[in-house]
Amino acid sequence: MNQLQETVTTYIESAGWFAPVLFILLHMLRPLLLIPVLVVCILGGVLFGFVPGAILSFIGLSLMSFEMYVLVNRFPGFKARLDRLKERFGHGRTLSLGQVLVLRVMPFVHFNLLNVYVMEMTKSFRQYASYTLAGLVAPAILYTAFGHALSSMSWITSLMLAAVLAGIYYVIGKYHKPETAPDTAD
């Protein structure tokens, strides 16, 4: 993983003005390469600085999310695979938008799985896009600005941060009332 990171870093640095385009493409290909969002956003902060890195990460994450929307709606088999993944990890639970937003800032949570949750709670691409864009601001900024600090924290600090995020997730879930389907069995 570190060797891949160094290779990508060297390639992007030598690309000059084309580097931002390559970085955005890396975001779009990231799911296929099994690279966590956190790693790519950290790379953006290192290569481009905080503000340009956060903006490029936001653009890349947005395009990747829109790409997922198209793939899920065009290829039912792809949606079925994501639904199986959702069932395996979500155990049939529904999530509120607030819970999805908290999960977006947790490192190593499957971004495309969260996109499926957002797709299920929206009725149109426009609504999906607005929820998704709002939900991508925080990870783009946090991962770019603090990604390196998060990855170099002590285990105790990391565990405390994870406990705080898990607590927030639990509290939001406690107050979220999932919609229930009407009982049609007569």
From TrEMBL:
InterPro entries: VTT_dom (IPR032816). The keyword Transmembrane helix applies. Coiled coil: none annotated. Keywords: Membrane, Transmembrane, Transmembrane helix. Residues 35-148 form the VTT domain. Pfam families: VTT_dom. The chain crosses the membrane at residues 21-48, 128-146, 152-172. This is TVP38/TMEM64 family protein. It comes from Planococcus lenghuensis.
